[in-house]
Amino acid sequence: MRLEAGDAALLIDSKGRRFLLELNPDRTFQYHEGAVPHNDLIGREEGSWIVSSTGAQLLLLRPRLADFTLKMKRRAQVVYPKDLGPILVYADIAPGMTVLEAGSGSGALTLGLSRAVGPTGKVVSVELREDHAAHARKAVEKWYGRFPENVEMRIGDVSDEIQSVEPARIVLDLPEPWHVVTAAAQHQPPGGLLAAYLPTVPQVQTTVETARETGVFTEIEVKEFLVRDWNVAGRSVRPEHRMIGHTGFLIFMRKTARPPSQED
Ligand SMILES: C[S@@+](CC[C@H](N)C(=O)[O-])C[C@H]1O[C@@H](n2cnc3c(N)ncnc32)[C@H](O)[C@@H]1O
After folding, report:
1. How far apart are CA 227 and CA 178, in angstroms?
2. Are strands 169-172 and 98-102 parallel, antiparallel or unpaired?
3. 126 lines ligand 1 (CB under 6 A)
4. Which sign does the torsion angle of CA 190, 194, 136, 128 carry?
5. In a 10 Å sphere around its CB, with 0-12 CB exposed, 13-18 middle and 19+ buried, how is residue 59 labelled?
6. Across residues 109-134, what is the average pLDDT?
7. What one-character DSSP code corresponds to residue 64?
8. What is the residue extent of each domain of the chain?
9. What's the pLDDT score for residue 258?
10. What is the chain's mean pLDDT, rounded?
11. Architecture of domain 67-262
12. Does the C-beta of 138 come closer than 6 Å to ligand 1?
């Protein structure tokens, strides 16, 4: 497909450096190997090779969601692509579902969730801070080119929104999810799933202990995903020297109807 004004575009240079642009006929992309007017990119096919003012070659692509979230402007730390995939799979996010998400932060997780629930589903994304919510809204608009119908953004504390949303899935990326676990124990529908993304061990411990104390969360799983890129060049086939050492732990749990001792 051809790229149009307003589209997100990714340029990759000969060393693999990646540049994210929003195509605008009045702008010129400048980098250490010259300049490329956006007008040279508008109307070009994805996958085209572009030549800069100094003769350097660049590959023009439409960014993947993973490229976009790593390169877009951020306010809060985003969920990395390596964790986004497992969140979608282990939280079992599927088309048509209603997902309650918090905090909206920079909007990276919101984008992954909204793609997964599709046009028949809904993501209610809640954020305490108005400035973060505005930033996330812009990121979502930039990715889709307009604000999608399947995302609703709310300002406030996510714990206060569970009862009105009745979410099949709750996905949390915020510092103190144990407060939300306590609220979800009361208001999330039975059979629902709650997922939390946390950078430190004490946060994981408090969240899991709180979930157990409620008596209504079970199937509690804590996971960490390590991803190693590989270099494949002639006989040099080996892991890359560098990798992302740590991002966060993922916790998943299922909501039961009532504690086992109270079953009929
Ligand atoms: C790490 S950021 C989230 C980043 C986001 N997941 C992304 O991928 O771009 C955490 C956000 O949670 C928000 N937050 C903290 N506690 C909250 C709460 N109880 N309800 C809603 N948002 C909350 C913070 O203001 C912050 O913007």
Report:
1. 28
2. parallel
3. yes
4. positive
5. middle
6. 98
7. P
8. 8-63, 67-262
9. 85
10. 96
11. 3-Layer(aba) Sandwich (3.40)
12. no
- 26: CA distance to ligand 1 center in Å? 35
124 lines ligand 1 (CB under 6 A): no
Write out the DSSP string of 145-185.
Answer: SS--TTEEEEES-GGGGHHHH--SEEEE-SS-HHHHHHHHH
Residue 138: what residue type? K
Does the C-beta of 81 come closer than 6 Å to ligand 1? no
For the chain, the straight-line distance linking the first and the last C-alpha, in angstroms and rounded, comes to 59
Token code pair at residue 132: 């973060």
Q: What number does CATH give the domain 8-63?
A: 3.10.330.20
- Give the tokens for residue 117: 């629930």
Model confidence pLDDT, tens digit, residues 46-63: 999 999 999 999 999 999
> Does residue 111 have its Cβ closer than 6 Å to ligand 1?
no
| Reported confidence tier of residue 264, pLDDT bands at 50, 70, 90 | low
For residues 14-33, give the mean pLDDT. Answer: 96
pLDDT score for 75: 86
3 state SS of 261: helix
Q: What is the pTM of this model?
A: 0.95
Whether the per-residue pLDDT at 78 is higher than 90: the answer is yes
The Cα 210–Cα 227 span in angstroms is 30
Ligand 1 binding pocket mutation candidate from 73, 128, 138, 153 (most atoms within 8 A of CB):
128
| DSSP strand pairing (34-37 vs 28-31) | antiparallel
In the prediction, which pLDDT does 263 show?
59
